[in-house]
Amino acid sequence: MLTKMLKTVFTIIGAVIGYQMVDVLGLAEEINFSLNNIIQSITSNQTYGIVIGGLIGYLVLPVIIDNIFQLVLSFETKMEKIPFPDIIAGTFGLIIGLILGILLIFTFPLSSIPKFGLSLQVLVNLTLGYLGLNLAIKKREELFELFNNISGTLNKKSILGGNDDEEQLEDDNGKAPCKILDTSVIIDGRIADICQTHFIDGVLVIPEFVLEELQHIADSADVLKRNRGRRGLDILNKIQKELDVPVEIYEGDFEEIDEVDSKLVKLAKLLNGKVVTNDYNLNKVAELQGVSVLNINELANAVKPVVLPGEEMTVKIIKNGKEPGQGVGYLDDGTMVVVDEGKNYIGDKIDVLVTSVLQTAAGRMIFAKPKVAEKAL
Questions:
Q1: Which of 368, 316, 360 is nearest to 341 (CA)?
Q2: In the prediction, which pLDDT does 177 show?
Q3: What is the pTM (predicted TM-score) of this model?
Q4: For residue 149, is it within any domain?
Q5: Strand 327-330 vs strand 274-277: parallel, antiparallel, or unpaired?
Q6: Number of folded domains in the chain?
Q7: How confident is the model at residue 169 (pLDDT cuts 50, 70, 90)?
Q8: Measured distance CA(85)–CA(252) in Å, rounded
Q9: What is the mean pLDDT of the chain?
Q10: Positive or negative: CA dihedral 122, 125, 128, 129
Q11: Cβ within 8 Å of residue 30, ≥6 positions away
Q12: Is the pLDDT of residue 9 over 50?
């Protein structure tokens, strides 16, 4: 029904345009509308214009409108894939380019050039607009960093009364920076427990390229990898549905970069956020590029109880150590305890005295000796 109505409207529009075109082209004839001149009226140029215009409106206009509609949909689909920061940067660059073009035209009046003046003006504006658009998108990180620095300077001056030496603001807007999760920390799962305790504030950002990597792991033929990937997806589902934590999915991508770690670092620079990870290599690369990192393993080591030499503790010896006579046990937090002369106590829970503590990149090791041996001395 709607199609028939549209075709009728297009036919009427085409007929009206056809009638007007006959007049515009100077082909209109003077007609005395009467019964005697009915044949002349039917065969007049105006009638031909109405018929031809109506046919064009009925047959051609729907095709043209449909193509325009498809073009708009295609443009909209492509625009949805472009990251929002790229759109902002590109728009800014386009405006700057057009302003420079206008200033250049006012400075050097190209319109005075015979024949090609107007064409040169249009060409200059289009060229500078394109250059501004392209350059702003390629330099968007530096552009946003410049805006952040300017905004931060203005905020500090207004809040601190112009004292630039004070650095106690959380960020430029007084809000906590966003936290960008990588694949390793999602699979690890402890991030959900940390969020539940509200130790992490701000918005959790989950990039779409991290979700794709997680989905790829969940679809792996390897059983272990598949289980890890599914666990990561379950953790994300728990964070989104069960925890009172703001979560956003970043749908943009950096197609010129292949490595996910490099994309994370670039995204952190773009959003002025922090990367949350368990990956040692990503940690170091991000720090080298000036990006703040929250390492869950470092947090876990930091919150373990402090143990000093001479303190007593109770531990269950479960296996032999590397050195002869040693026994090995573990605390509730997973800290390894190496007990000298502990081999004879395998399977038993005994009191020990701490002799030394070794802190490594992998964690902490406690060396001790049985308390009963101390009493015997």
A1: 368
A2: 82
A3: 0.52
A4: no
A5: unpaired
A6: 4
A7: very low
A8: 9
A9: 78
A10: negative
A11: none
A12: yes
The pLDDT of 344-355, averaged and rounded, is: 90
Contact indicator for 178, 164 with CB cutoff of 8 Å: no
Distance in angstroms between the alpha carbons of the first and the last residue of the chain: 103
- Scan for tokens 């090791």, then name that residue: 365
298 and 184 together in one domain? yes
Backbone angles phi, psi at 371, to 5 degrees: -70, -30
> 33 and 55 share a domain?
yes
What whole-number distance in Å separates Cα of residue 360 and Cα of residue 302? 12
Domain boundary residue, one of 241, 267, 302: 302
**Is 326:317 a contact under the CB 8 Å cutoff?**
no
CATH code of 363's domain: 2.40.50
Asked if the model's pLDDT at residue 167 lies above 50, the reply is no
Q: Is residue 159 over pLDDT 50?
A: no
Pick from 329, 376, 337: nearest CA to 356: 337
How high is the pLDDT of residue 24?
Answer: 67
44-58, 116-130, 263-277, 314-328: least confidently modelled range = 44-58
Query: Which range of residues forms the domain containing residue 13?
Result: 2-64
Bridge partners, 45 (sequence order): none
- Is the same domain home to 184 and 291? yes
By the 10 Å C-beta count (0-12 exposed, 13-18 middle, 19+ buried), 101 is classed as buried
